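Subject: sequence -> structure tokens, single chain

Hey, anyone have a minute? Need the predicted structure for the following. Not urgent.
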Amino acid sequence: MEEKTKLNMQMYDPESVLASLQKLNLMDDFLFDAVTVDLEVCKIIIELSLGITIRSIAWKEGQKVIHNLPGSRGIRMDFYVEDDLGQVFDVEMQKRNEGNIPKRTRFYQALIDAPMLKSGERGFDGLKPAYIVVICGFALFGYGLYRYTFDNRCKEIPDLVMGDECQKIIFNTKGKDERGVDKPLIDFLHYVEKSSEESVPEDCDKRLKHLHKKIHQIKLSEEIGVSYMKMEELLRKESAYAGQY
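Reply:
Had a minute. Here:
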């Protein structure tokens, strides 16, 4: 396997390989997937997004894919973890607006909840507090906010929360209204959109600086760069093939 990796790397110009990685931002699927294999990075992303501090996290049963009933659609999550308090976090990165986020989060909640209860289990106390986080590279709602937090509330009594312990939080990297939003979150969202040294302010949260170091290391990896270029080649071939029919 090591020899095959070396051979693959020799087929590409190192300068071109690294240049291709430098153009990527955390908003891009490849870089986000590459960096979030590291639980420490996942923890930083959750903490900066939600403004909380977590002691530790673990992969939720090693799952990124949750299957549905035979013949029904399942889901593949960007990353799905559980903290030491039993709270679960599904974090998704969405670069382009495909017009499906509201119903997509509804579907994700259903499939995240279902495996928490065993067949024949009485009651619903086994359902853990859940956060479904979607970081968007576009203004989904058009109000200029950086953050939109949704939970189930009573229409007749807006202050009455149902208490199902599931929140859906939609972030907008292109937000404009900084009222009620902490600087660490704004800095993080700007960094998601442009993941470079210039997007790491001197006075930013130390966790953002640590995240940047992790991403910088990935962008200096020829092996990861070769994987990216091979993926790009495959996508181009698939696109060309599809264009013939």
